[in-house]
Amino acid sequence: MNIVVVIKQVPEIELVRVDETAGAVTLPSGPGIVNPFDEYAIEEGLKIKEQVGGKVTAVTVGSERAVSALRQALSVGVDEAILITDPAFENSDPQAIARILTAAIGKIGDVNLILAGKQAIDDDSAQVPAALAANLDWPQILFVKKTESVTDSEAVFLRTTEEGYDSVTTSLPAVVSVVKEINEPRLPSLKGKMAAKKAAITQWSAADLGGDIKAVGAASPTKTIKATAPPPPQKGEIIEGETPEEIAEKLFGKLREDQVL
């Protein structure tokens, strides 16, 4: 079983600032972290490998800084890490990232399953897994909460819905995005950290991927016009009373006063 987990290095959200004057987001200078939802995808890939055998490869698109995210994936048991980095790919939007990853999957070859977190916490677009599946013309099962069974040619997943969940049987290869309910990511051992620190990380440029990947980097169709900080939360009000009835009456009066009712 050849499993690829696509991951993203994201900034620590609490360190992100918005420059109101420039109307732009200012990112911290640190190495960032692995997108939290992608950690669940890594863990699920490792669990499937432990059940049926095979190999798990982590792939990301980014700058040299993203090496730290790949080493984190290696430290918990991922077999190989690939960094796709090229000045031509800078500022790619989610659809462009999916096109770049599509070319990378073709270069890897013989992939049975692609796993990803349901979304990245920096943009919350949740576009890449679906776009990747569409580009590859593979089945896509999104927001998966449990892997029921996997063979070399078929898998069964439980997919979350607004009403509960669906049991979905799919042929492989396929693209699957996961939610945090699917597992509990393992922590790296000291041995794993040391091995990851020394491990070689494969790097591919645009030339290595071959072909002419359209509408990526600065040519991405999505443009950010302006960014603003979210408004501060409104101050709450505590309604007190001697009895539940009194509290309910005060609440009702307040709602009428504010013309909610």
Summarize the structure in words.
The chain is of the alpha/beta class and 261 residues long. Helix content is 30%, strand content 25%. Strand 6, helix 2 (67-75) and strand 7 form a beta-alpha-beta unit. Helix 2 (67-75) crosses helix 5 (190-198).
Strand order of the largest sheet: 11-10-9-12-8-1-6-7-13
Instruction: Give the domain tally.
Output: 2
Q: Looking at this structure, what is the CATH superfamily of the largest domain?
A: HUPs
* Helix and strand composition category: alpha/beta
What proportion of the residues form beta strands (DSSP E)? 15-25%
Proper CATH architecture of the largest domain: 3-Layer(aba) Sandwich
Helices, by number, come to 7
Largest β sheet strand count, sense and barrel closure: 9 strands, mixed
Please give a quick description of this structure.
With 261 residues, the chain is of the alpha/beta class. The chain has seven helices and 13 strands. The chain has helices spanning 36-52, 67-75, 94-108, 128-136, 190-198, 206-209, 244-257, and strands at residues 2-6, 9-10, 17-19, 24-26, 33-34, 55-61, 80-84, 113-117, 140-150, 154-160, 165-171, 174-178, 202-204.
